[in-house]
Automatic annotation (TrEMBL):
Protein name: Hydroxymethylglutaryl-CoA lyase
UniProt xrefs under PANTHER family: HYDROXYMETHYLGLUTARYL-COA LYASE (PTHR42738:SF7)
Keywords: Lyase, Metal-binding
The keyword Metal-binding appears for this protein: yes
């Protein structure tokens, strides 16, 4: 029988340049955002949510998406994700070096109408249209089911409610579906329940999770995602993607009291210690990654929310081999 705590491969998705910045009081100019992306690529990030193609009057921190994408490092090993909400956003993304679009679909009408001024049903229609545009431009498509763990306006969200939206989202046949704990209320039990929804549905090719650490459960949730329960079946594709933001910056501007994402360097430290294999270039230099978080904090005039930027990496010393005859 398989080990109930057997890990799968984890793919780190760096969302600092988008979700990390969109809720900050101080907007960063295009060149600073490009420099952030350049530093992240230099530390091994290979999948980066770089920009958001939304209205700059609503989210000024994300203004200049096209300008940012015109200046980012062009590396065939790096995939750039652009967040979009509709066909128009996908059309904008298609004119840039973005290789993926991430389309957000809230699972509650209360959040969807406040965030996107549309019902969930209407957002599913918009997602289908945006997906068509993206595929026509040769881009991959991710669908993120927002507030899948709880909604700031309507309260707890049942697994059944998420399952209903998931089934309809799967009809779009995206390359990946993500469950987002938008306001940081989730616990590991919910992670396991949501992951189990995707098992056995061939239309769901890959799973991704987006955790916030608002109530100090984000890292526990990440461990739960990285150690799927084999009794429910195989994880689609054998890989779980986990979002994280360098320095732990981030939050949703439309979710009251939302705080930061889980920090990329803290998550990398945790997964390394758990022995979880990482896709791509493997485990990053954690201290070097933390320095990027410190640099970003200086640009934002704000302190990082992660802890590794202060504590630093820790590698336990390797014990010396026992010598024959040494007393124990």
């Amino acid at each position: 029988m398989e080990n109930a705590h057997m890990s799968t491969t984890v793919e780190l998705v760096e969302v600092g340049p988008r979700d990390g910045l969109q809720n900050e009081k101080k907007p960063l100019d295009v060149d600073t955002r490009v420099e952030l992306i350049r530093r992240l690529v230099g530390q091994g990030a290979r999948r980066i949510e770089a920009v958001s193609f939304v209205r700059p009057d609503l989210v000024p921190q994300m203004a200049g998406a096209e300008e940012v994408m015109a200046k980012v490092p062009q590396d065939p090993e790096v995939s750039y994700i652009g967040l979009v909400l509709n066909r128009r956003g996908a059309e904008r993304a298609a004119q840039t070096p973005c290789t993926e679009v991430n389309i957000v679909i809230p699972v509650t009408d209360s959040f969807s109408t406040r965030n996107q001024n549309l019902t969930v049903d209407a957002m599913l229609d918009h997602a289908a249209a945006a997906s068509q545009v993206a595929r026509g431009a040769g881009m991959r498509v991710s669908l993120t089911l927002a507030v899948a763990f709880g909604c700031p306006f309507s309260g707890p969200v049942s697994t059944g409610q998420v399952a209903d939206v998931l089934l309809r989202a799967a009809e779009i046949e995206p390359d990946e579906i993500a469950f987002a704990d938008t306001i940081g209320v989730g616990v590991p039990r919910q992670v396991r329940e949501l992951a189990a929804l995707a098992v056995g549905d061939d239309r769901i090719r890959k799973l991704r999770f987006h955790f916030h650490n608002t109530r100090n459960t984000g890292y526990a949730n990440a461990v739960a995602a990285a150690h799927p329960d084999p009794s429910t079946g195989a994880v689609p594709g054998g890989v779980i993607a986990l979002d994280a933001s360098v320095g732990g910056f981030g939050g949703c501007p439309f979710a009251p009291a939302a705080t930061g994402n889980i920090a990329t360097e803290d998550l990398a430290y945790l997964l390394r210690g758990e022995g979880v294999p990482l896709a791509g270039n493997g485990h990053p230099d954690i201290d070097a990654l933390a320095r990027v978080g410190t640099w970003l904090g200086e640009q934002l005039d704000n302190s990082p929310q992660g802890l590794l930027v202060r504590a630093g990496d820790f590698t336990p010393p390797v014990p010396a081999p026992d010598k024959e005859g040494t007393e124990k």
